[in-house]
Amino acid sequence: MNDKQRITELREQLDLHNYRYYVLDDPEIPDVEYDRLLRELESLEQKHPELVTPQSPTQRVGAAPLKGFAEVRHELPMLSLRNCFTEDELLAFDKRVRERLGHEDEIEYAAEPKLDGLAVSLLYVNGRLERAATRGDGQQGEDVTQNIRTIKSAPLVLRGTSYPDRLEVRGEVYMPKKSFEKFNDQARKAGGKILVNPRNAAAGSLRQLDPKLTAQRPLAIYFYSVGIVEGGELSTRHSEVLRQLSEWGLRVCPQSTTVLGTSGCIQYYTSILEARDSLGYEIDGVVYKVDRFDMQQELGFVSRAPRWAIAHKFPAQEELTRIIGVEFQVGRTGALTPAAKLEPVFVGGVTVSNATLHNMDEIQRKDIRIGDTVIVRRAGDVIPEVVKVLVDRRPADAQFIILPVRCPICDSAVVRVEGEAVARCSGGLACPAQRKEAIKHFASRRAMDIEGLGDKLVEQLVDCGLVNSADGLYRLSHEQLAGLERMGDKSAQNLLDGIEGSKKTTLARFIYALGIREVGEATAQVLSGYFGNLEALIESNEQALQQITDVGPIVARHIATFFLQPHNLEVIGSLRSAGIHWQDQQAMRAEQRTLEGSTFVLTGTLQGMTRDEAKQRLQALGAKVSSSVSARTTAVIAGENPGSKQDKAESLGVEILDENALLKLLNS
Ligand code: IVH
């Protein structure tokens, strides 16, 4: 094969993999393999610059910065949607539709998420992306072709051959939630610009004059309608057209579907509202469109909005309100978390009067002061937060927020470790707030799971002096409990039963319940598996702890420090003499750690389990799991489409095992 043929072949392969990845969401090869193909194409094109075309997958970045965007007049205006907020409004819309059409039966609607991004139009001429524009005012937008070309889910060439000669597709550019968070995490570390929300992020990114900057922003696109169609025919239904678009490689939102009548619409609305937090993209409602184009045509438009479609909006997740004060809450580890007291505001479906301000660095970064008008956001079950200050509306007497020098609960000194964002109360377990949080954690479902002991009750027990630390729970008497406010004989007995029931536990739960800093459930599991009994863990030291896979230097220090405190050892002793017990794993341990000292690398897709599961099970048997192959690797476990790690293993003579062999290993 000569270079020219190889170039053609590589482009076809890359286009196919792009399609599988972005449109079908079913990649065939790992990312590294894709990158390898792309690099091969790049180097061949460097050798033969005359063979480079604008449609080549290598040509997504590189255009020179613009002085300004050219104007684009839309041949067919880009319309907007009317909104409705209630079921009644939806019923009225449907009634109007059926009356106009003289249609008695239920209407078939295409139902789609209403994506919260930026509307764009892409024109394909003979299957090639020719021009892309923003919606602008609907009549006239801006030419953002070079920026759109940097978005990998916007194809430079359409697939197949059945598309119209001139095809204008419309859709929404957005920033996936994950990418948004990742981008901001990186920006925070690098001291770069923080993006306010995914919608602004998408809009701002697309309107960069330098396409190289846009290329660094992780944007994506979903297509939801067509404009110009010339030299070819499309299907007679909107839902069918969406199917055609995806066949041509244009990405369509997978939650798009069809429903029957208003009951179907409402069901759809509810299911998408429920799924909202788990979707990878931001939405602010759903859209219903009459599915049949002949009906759409008959219905026509009023002003700039079609009569055949409506957006059914969700309650807003962002609202304006004012900060009227700040309180510092003290957590289990003494961390002081500033919380804003707000003028109550209805947002995300509930009335909100508190919002977290995270820590002092966040307050400084966002320049938040008492008296400020702010945007609060409440998304799903997440704690409401202050997104942004409207500095223009700051009153002259706005006050700075100052970190208290003494703990608001116990008056101990507040300390702030250099380089750490959090400030902590130094009172330790002498601080009632920390005691309460420690006991709440100890009793919580995933720790000791004490049934009947809720947060309020813990506070009550600490406040009235009945319990000072977790072991005190096991000395409570029926008489003491029944004497508490709002506590009857029966609930007192239930709680005592719950406390008694918690005594039989596992070592992992007990370690987790101790509330050692940075020791979550996963680390507790690892420690339990590694040491097998509590004594060995207590007697271990910082250095030894660091030898354990998944225990880093900071965690090791926290663990070692915890077990050096006489108070902690006393509480542990008292808990054990109260009868808390578990089955020691030591006897089982020696036999179980059959893979101690070996290192595995996982590659490709496994059929019976995820790679994470495989990793955990290998680690449970004492093996190390690494991400790169070296001569020291014991074996590479290769699932389907294994990628370059298998090649590397072959070249180093490292053993390669398939999934069956893995199962044998795990079960041996
Ligand atoms: S259809 C006449 N479908 O909503 C049809 N629009 O208010 C107009 N949008 O500018 C567009 N998701 O930015 C349509 N699934 C969806 C949409 C959607 C979001 C946006 C779009 C448009 C605005 C209209």
Task: Describe the structure using short key phrases.
binds 2-(butylsulfanyl)adenosine, 25 helices, globular, 24 strands, 668 residues
Description of the molecule:
This protein is α+β, with helices and mostly antiparallel strands. The chain is built from 25 helices and 24 strands. The strands form six sheets. Strands 14, 15, 16, 17, 18, 19 and 20 form a seven-stranded antiparallel beta sheet that branches. Strands 2-13-10-3-9 form a five-stranded mixed beta sheet. The longest helix has 21 residues, at 3-23. The mean pLDDT is 91. The structure holds 2-(butylsulfanyl)adenosine (IVH). 2-(butylsulfanyl)adenosine is lined by residues 79-81, 112, 114-115, 119, 135, 172, 224-225, 287, 306, 309, 311. Residues 79-81, 112, 114-115, 119, 135, 172, 224-225, 287, 306, 309, 311 line the site of 2-(butylsulfanyl)adenosine (IVH).
Percentage of residues assigned to helices: 25-40%
Query: What is the percentage of strand-forming residues?
Result: 15-25%
Characterize the overall form.
Answer: globular
Structural classification: alpha+beta
Q: Identify the bound ligands.
A: 2-(butylsulfanyl)adenosine
Mean pLDDT: 91
Radius of gyration: 31 Å
Q: What is the makeup of the main sheet?
A: 7 strands, antiparallel
Q: How many beta strands in the DSSP annotation?
A: 24
**Span between N and C termini?**
48 Å
> Stretches where pLDDT falls below 50 for ≥5 residues?
none
Number of helices: 25
In short, what is this structure?
The protein is built from 25 helices and 24 strands. By secondary structure, the chain is α+β, with helices and mostly antiparallel strands. The strands form 6 sheets. Strands 14, 15, 16, 17, 18, 19 and 20 form a 7-stranded antiparallel beta sheet that branches.
